[in-house]
Structure formats: structure tokens, C-alpha cells
Design brief:
The structure is a single chain. Helix content is 37%, strand content 22%. The protein is an alpha/beta fold and 175 residues long. It folds into two domains: 3-125 and 160-174, Flavodoxin domain (Rossmann fold); 128-158, no CATH class. The protein has a five-stranded parallel sheet, with helices on both faces. Strands 6-7 form a two-stranded antiparallel sheet. The longest helix has 15 residues, at 14-28. It is globular and about 45 Å long. The relative contact order is 0.17.
């Protein structure tokens, strides 16, 4: 049985939802999982975990500054343990951009950090226009128009391939 920490950075809650599914599957294999927002990671004894998994969402082409900060401050510790990173973004809804080596946001992110995660994944996110404030709804609709995505302001579409999330959880168990 491993002690596994899953940290997440989420904008609208969908990355947390993915982490909850990972937690459920990983715990079914007999592991103990602690799930926490990356903003709360400062109060966690990172050394007490056997594996560390980080999941982060994209908003306007970038991961949260808190993700970069955490990785910079803890790169050596992360490297010393089995670890993984996954990105959640809507561009991953496209088959040609839903893998670590084809997703432009993940590729850019990896060039900006010193840490080299041992495992990587990309999951398509969710669009919920009704949940967004006026500015976010307008900007995201414009981005979707440019990328030929859904633009109807009543749209609520989850693009996540949950079977890929479950496969990732099984790989976490084997790390």
C-alpha cells in the first residue's frame, strides 16, 4: 500500500473532479490517497508520501502561477519520488492534441519548468458557459469560434474521456 498525494490546481472545479475519480480508483487498489489543492500544499508534509501526482487546468493558455511556484520550490523532492503531472485543457478535445507529445500547452509548460515528471497525461476539460462570468464567457466563446469549438452561450459540454482518466489511475498504481 502506497501513500499517494494528489495535488490539483483548478479554475472551475473540473480538474478537482478528475482528481476525485483518480482517488477513487487508486484507493480501490488499496492505496491511501490524500487529495489537496496546490494552494494548501504548504501545510502538507510532502516527504511523508510515496508518490506525488499533480493535475492542473489551463485558463487562457496558462497553468496557474501557483503550479509553477510549487514545482520550483519542490523540484528536488518531486524528482526523488515516483511522480506524475497531468494537464486539463479544452484543446485536448481534438484527437491530434490530446497526448502529452502533441498537446501545445503541456509541451510549452514542460519547457518552462526544470522538473521532468516521470509520467504525463493530458485530459480534455469542460466548457460551461453558464458558469462563467461575462468576460470569461465572451473570451472563451471567441477562442472557441477561432478553434471551431462550441460557441452557444447555453453550452455545457464535458469533453473528458473518463476511460483515459481511469487508465491513468491504473498506471499510478503501478508506478
Amino acid at each position: 500500500m502506497s501513500r499517494i498525494l494528489i495535488l490539483y490546481s483548478t479554475t472551475d472545479g473540473h480538474t478537482r473532479k478528475i482528481c476525485l475519480r483518480l482517488q477513487e480508483i487508486v484507493e480501490m487498489a488499496g492505496n491511501h490517497v490524500t487529495l489537496s489543492s496546490i494552494d494548501q500544499a504548504g501545510v502538507i508534509d510532502l516527504k511523508s508520501f510515496d508518490k506525488i501526482i499533480i493535475g492542473a487546468s489551463i485558463r487562457y493558455g496558462k497553468h496557474s502561477p501557483a503550479v509553477y511556484r510549487f514545482i520550483k520550490e519542490n523540484a528536488q523532492l518531486l524528482d526523488s519520488k515516483p511522480n506524475a503531472f497531468f494537464s486539463v485543457n479544452v484543446v485536448a478535445r481534438k484527437a491530434e492534441k490530446n497526448m502529452p507529445d502533441t498537446n501545445p500547452y503541456l509541451k510549452k509548460f514542460l519547457k518552462q519548468i526544470a522538473w521532468k515528471p516521470k509520467m504525463l497525461a493530458v485530459f480534455a476539460g469542460k466548457i460551461d458557459y453558464q458558469k462563467y462570468n461575462f468576460l470569461d464567457r465572451t473570451v472563451i466563446r471567441l477562442i472557441m469560434w477561432f478553434t471551431r469549438g462550441p460557441t452557444d452561450p447555453k453550452t455545457n459540454i464535458e469533453f473528458t474521456d473518463w476511460s483515459r482518466v481511469e487508465e491513468f489511475a491504473l498506471v499510478i498504481n503501478e508506478m
